[in-house]
Amino acid sequence: MIKLFSHITMVFFLMTSVLSAQKTEVCKTCEISTIARAVEKAKPFDTIEVRAGTYKEYNIGITKPLTITGEGNPVIDGEHKGEIITIRSDNVTLAGFTLVNVGTSYTTDYAAIRVVKSKDFNIRNNTLERLFFGIYLEKARQGKVLNNTIKGDAVNEYNSGNGIQLWYSNNVEVSGNTVQNVRDGIYLEFSDNIEIRNNKSIDNLRYGLHFMFSNHDTYTENLFENNGAGVAVMFSKFIKMRDNTFRKNWGPSSYGLLLKEITDSELTRNTFESNTQGVRAEGVSRMTFTENDFANNGYAVKIQGACYSNTFSRNNFLYNTFDLSYSGRINENNFDHNYWSDYYGYDLNRDGTGDVPYRPVKLFSHMTNRIPEAIVLLRSTFTGLLDFSEKVTPVFTPPGLMDNAPEMKKIIW
Amino acid sequence: MLKIIKYSFFDLVRSRWSYAYFLFYLLLAAVLLFLNNNLSGAIITLMNVNIILVPLIATVFGVMYHYNSREFTNLLLAQPLKRSAIFTGQYLGIAGSLSLSLVLGLGIPFAAYGLFRSTMIWNFAILMITGVALTFIFTSLAFNIALSNENRIKGFGYAILLWLLLAVVYDGIFLLLLASFQEYPLEKFSLAATVLNPIDLSRILILLKLDISALLGYTGAVFKQFFGTSTGSILSSLMLLLWIVLPLWRMRKTAERKDF
């Protein structure tokens, strides 16, 4: 009886709180014509509906739980004066706005939308243009950033900001966003348990996605195209990278994926296509590279040093200029059971794997590692001869570095 | 001289060797294009052919032609003709016919494939220009060797050696030098070493045109900067021209002095 009573009171209590939630409309001709004023007047858990129009406002601070939605795509113009919206409360939803003209500063990271020390936020379906920083999550947690479009106009790295930045933020979902032309598309620093899914990061100056000191994060089904480098994962652990596409990160020092000081992570079912360097690894340990496609890259995988106990298996290496570049003489990594389009061995016992080991490191790629200038001899007759003789009797490349069981057919995953 | 060019040219154009050469290129380009369906890849493969086969065939063919037409040359020498005109005529005839085989052999499949509607036309043009230049360079070198050596075996030997030297050994020495002086900045040196060898120069000119140039890294950027300017392109065309003119000049001088 007491239990039932408590249930009834609870339902009643909830209903009153829902019923008391009020809806405020904001438009140019309404009683309340600015968003800042509407926010100020609203009670916690109210809904503010903003009608179409351009609102010239900046530094809108939201300090109570509110649902703010734009109807007919209203524009908030910050007029380059500073930050546009700052959220300092839990349970805030912000949807359907176009935010333009964020201020640029060399001392403060102005953002179009900033979330500070809050949880359960939901930022969705917004369009951000002409910005410094886009969506900046600062010590925020358990929130969602969904289906936003961020279009920057960054020219130089030093005076541009990042599209979506997470700083000391945990358990956040970032999905369905499109980020173009900013410095780093998505940037994570000290942020754990983040899920990044189905985003497009295109034409960014530096990295499409950038991890720094962030652990236990997952990114899947994203597209990284034509960035300075597709993704950079640095000083992080337990990162899962699956079903992503890295394309056309093409230029003198571009990579598809840069791995630096990272351990215990996995790279599975990704596609690397037409990158100058598909994967560049420095100080990578205990990582598995499984079922990835490396096609038409300059270097498919470039291993720079201090890489131990990594496993490459069931990957397809297709028509890359160099399949693997390796510095150092000691190999602690396993390259068995991959498909290499350059493999010309045979399979007499018909078990699906070649009978002759494949050596993915060409002597010439070893040479260019030591003498970068030697690259001007690329595709010359002499280097062809060198590669051939090294293939027959390996002298310079690490002796243990080979695929002992190269697949005869392209792996379908 | 024009008459001699005409005679040599048509004599060669009608010969079986020219047809074989022409058909070889025709087949190669057609197979590459229609089986591979990748214009950029086809151009890279043809570049490899360009820097190995074109010089080799030009050298061997040049030497062979000179030795085979010895009697006819002697007959011409008995006529009131200038020696330089006779040899220059023969040279232009053979280089011209080889170039024609090359240009038509590669050009026809590419034109049929739809090159003129694609953006690759300039890359292909560079391929053709360097191919023709290499033909002219190595034919003139071959004539020099043949004129200086009465002994056919020796002549062939030197010709092959010369080809080996420029196509393979030069790069080997180049790489060795790069390895031994790697503490020093080597961009300028590698630039100079590349420009000095016509085969390397042709290779780099084609590579820089293709999108593979991003692979060349910092050194490649220096190269691109150099060849991108008008000074660079003038200098590289001048170098190719010099490689044709200098041997030609020596050939004419040797021919004037030689006791036939």
UniProtKB/TrEMBL annotation, chain A:
Signal sequence annotation: 1-21
SUPFAM superfamilies: Pectin lyase-like
Keyword hit for Repeat: yes
Keyword Ligase assigned: no
Protein name: Nitrous oxide reductase family maturation protein NosD
One Pfam assignment: NosD
Pathway: Protein modification; protein ubiquitination
Organism: Sinomicrobium weinanense
Residue stretches in coiled coil: none
InterPro entries (alphabetical): Carb-bd_sugar_hydrolysis-dom, NosD_copper_fam, NosD_dom, Para_beta_helix_rpt-2, PbH1, Pectin_lyas_fold, Pectin_lyase_fold/virulence, SCF-Subunits/Alg-Epimerases
Every Carbohydrate-binding/sugar hydrolysis domain range: 50-189, 196-356
Family matches, as PANTHER family: F-BOX ONLY PROTEIN, F-BOX ONLY PROTEIN 10
Entry keyword set: Repeat, Signal, Ubl conjugation pathway
TrEMBL record, chain B:
Signal sequence residues: none
Key words, A-Z: Membrane, Transmembrane, Transmembrane helix
Transmembrane intervals: 20-36, 42-65, 91-115, 121-147, 159-181, 226-249
Protein name: ABC transporter permease
Record organism: Sinomicrobium weinanense
Lineage summary: Bacteria, Pseudomonadati, Bacteroidota, Flavobacteriia, Flavobacteriales
